[in-house]
Amino acid sequence: MCYALLLIKIFFLSRVSILELFNSQRAINRSFNLIPFHSISEYISGNTANLKRFASANVVGNILVFIPLGVYLSLFKSKSRSMMNLLFLFMVSLFIEIIQGLLGIGAADIDDIILNALGGWIGILVYKSLLFILRDVKRVQTAIAGLSVLIGLPVIYYYLFMIKMRF
Questions:
Q1: How confident is the model over 127-160, as pLDDT tens digits?
Q2: pTM for this structure?
Q3: Whole-angstrom Cα distance, residue 110 to residue 92?
Q4: Which of 48, 68, 100, 153 is the most exposed place for a label (fewest CB within 10 A)?
């Protein structure tokens, strides 16, 4: 539940508050990129240090934010094939980008979808690796719960309370 709230905050409420989101006087700037790897190549070819720092944060952030979703999806839908889980992750990312574009609360970018799907795929691989190493679903569940507490809670705390993000 905390992870879901964090995703909502990052994807939908990081640039506007809930009050601003439904304000009819708000200026809406829509941006769409449908060319794969266009944004990433612009980041790489950028000359300024700030652009490179933003690019790194954007690329790494889009990957990292979906890794837990890939792990949790594999955990809760372990009977599903990995390809179906990856397709689901792709569809979730596509939905997020469409909503961001329609509401004007972020740039709808195919590169974000690709990076999010990559992060979800890494999460699926993490789950499969844990299952291979621990050889028992119950142990994997315990390990993921422990990792969620050790890694997830501090990250969620940091994003929700330490970084100034609008509500």
A1: 999 999 999 999 999 999 999 888 887 877 777 6
A2: 0.84
A3: 13
A4: 48
